[in-house]
């Protein structure tokens, strides 16, 4: 099932550390900020400072506006986000210090609970066709910074305008046709649910 979600359904909530607020685009059902399986959000960062502790989660952070951000983690890893749609992938339990390059930025956050979901995040600057195999992941999202996304599956076609979130639930039969996303400055997220251990 493919759903296009309007920004009017996004929620603005405080950061976990209380130092700012974030726009929550989507979150796993029956979840809270303290306990969720996956979550997508956009945050404005206006000052240098420590990131919230999200121990037990894998984080992907994408630069979507501004002049850049450096993330220094206590693991020793350093992520330099200098170009639009640069991605940082890191453990949410690390102590992470965010240093602005030159002024306020916005970032797109994807968080997935470790051992529950595996996330694969890709960004595409130039206009192109991205093909998704419904059998490969449990849930997909797409978001464009600059224009609409065309979503094509067989004879069906939908459009997600700039700033809208496209959600694709891959719970249908294994015979479902591939889905093509056509757009530019896109963030495409595939979430794969880990099989429960027996």
UniProtKB/TrEMBL annotation:
InterPro entries: RmlC-like_jellyroll (IPR014710), RmlC_Cupin_sf (IPR011051), Uncharacterised_HutD/Ves (IPR010282)
Pfam families the record matches: HutD
Domain of life assignment: Bacteria
Name used for this protein in its record: HutD family protein
Coiled coil region boundaries: none
